Every structure is written in structure tokens, then in C-alpha cells.
Amino acid sequence: MKVILVNGSPHKNGCTNRALEEIQMQLVKEGVDSEIFWIGTSVQGCIGCFRCGQTGKCVFDDKVGEFLNLAKSADAFVFGSAVYYGSATGSITSFMDRVFFSGTGYMEDKPVASVVSCRRGGASEAFAQLNMYYMMNNMPVVSSQYWNQVHGFTPEDVEQDAEGLQTMRTLAINMAWLLKGIEAGREKGLARPKRETWVATNFIR
Ligand SMILES: Cc1cc2nc3c(=O)[nH]c(=O)nc-3n(C[C@H](O)[C@H](O)[C@H](O)COP(=O)(O)O)c2cc1C
Questions:
Q1: Cα–ligand 1 centroid distance for 153 (angstroms)
Q2: Could you read off the pLDDT of 173-184 as tens digits, one per residue?
Q3: CB 147 less than 6 A from any atom of ligand 1
Q4: Would you say 42 and 77 are in contact if contact means Cβ atoms under 8 Å apart?
Q5: Is residue 93 a part of any domain in this protein?
Q6: Residue 41 lies in a domain
Q7: How many angstroms separate the Cα of 47 from the Cα of each of 21, 55, 97, 148?
Q8: CATH number for position 153
Q9: How confident is the model at residue 202 (pLDDT cuts 50, 70, 90)?
């Protein structure tokens, strides 16, 4: 069982990373593997060319492709972002637009959670923004004892956010529990759900 923890902050070793490390430490205790994946400082946005629908992959060969290669064999995901103006960062938004548009098949049916880091405000808005991707991709969203947020300007600040860090540990415990439940179900022959073909109706037709 492996969880990919995506750091969507431009700071490789900042507050978002510290939150993900707390999840990682708890996952180790739960016997679940994980890897922190940093998206870097700039990610090309989706250009809406729809080529991925024909070829199965994005026209841009960058961190998105690297991530989707890992995602194929991963069992679960956590997407983390710093809060910029009450929203997720531009980079993680570009990253997730392209991940979910070109690679939804690698994400479907796998547990997922969001984590946000802010100095003071806007965490709920950014958290809700990230959760939008999962809710239309058949992914079980893992919760914690509170909305998954930490507060700080530096990782040292986050160190003092005892409740934020506890929220991360609880998230990891809940994630591990769900993953073990899914594995136990699979061993008993419980298959992935079969769904109807998507009926896409635009408002105008
Ligand atoms: C452009 C920019 C916008 C920001 N906007 C907010 C904000 O709306 N609310 C907030 O509390 N912090 C805001 N911050 C602070 C960061 O979200 C906060 O320090 C975060 O924990 C940094 O995480 P990181 O170290 O992983 O990058 C902003 C920082 C930058 C650079």
C-alpha cells in the first residue's frame, strides 16, 4: 500500500511539506508506505486542447506525467497546498487540472485527501477548492478530526500548531484504516464498482 503525498507549494521544505511529513510519520506507524512528491515552482496550465482524450496523455511532458506514472501503482493520494489569496496556489491548480483531465483513470476509486497551509486565513476556501477534483472522480475522500489545515509562515511555526499536526496524524490513521479495509474487501472478492457510461448533458442540449 502506497500513498503519494503531493506538495503543491513552491517551497520544497516549507509549511505544506511539514504537514505532509507529519502524515508520513504516522503512515509509517500504520505500516503504510508513502512518498512526498514536490511539483516544483511552476507548472504549465491546461490549454484545453483535448488531445489527452485521444492519446491518453497530456501534450506537455513535465511533472504531471512524472506524477501520473507514480499514480498508476499508488493506492491513495494527499494533495497539499499553501494558501494564496484564500485559494490553492496557481501551480497546484494547474497541476491538478491536468492530472485529473488527462489521468482520471489512475485516480478513480482511490482514497484521497487535501491538506492546506496558511499563515492566518483562507484555509477553508482553498481546502474546498482542492476537494472539488475528487468529488467528480469517484474517489473516497478521507476526513480527519477537523478540516485538514496547519497554520504558519515557516515550518517552525507549524511545529507549534499542535492541533494542526494532530489533525494530520488523525488523517493518516483514517487513511490507513480505509486502505486496509479496501484491501481486506479485495481479498474477500469485493470488486471495484461497475458504473454506468457517463451521460454528458450540457445545459443547452
Ligand atoms: C502570494 C502569497 C499569498 C498568500 N496568501 C495567503 C492568504 O490568503 N492567507 C494566509 O493565511 N496566508 C497567505 N500566504 C502565506 C502562506 O500561505 C503561508 O505562509 C503558508 O503556510 C506557506 O506554506 P509553504 O511554506 O508550504 O509555502 C500567502 C503567501 C504568498 C506568497
A1: 7
A2: 999 999 999 999
A3: no
A4: no
A5: yes
A6: yes
A7: 33, 15, 10, 30
A8: 3.40.50.360
A9: confident
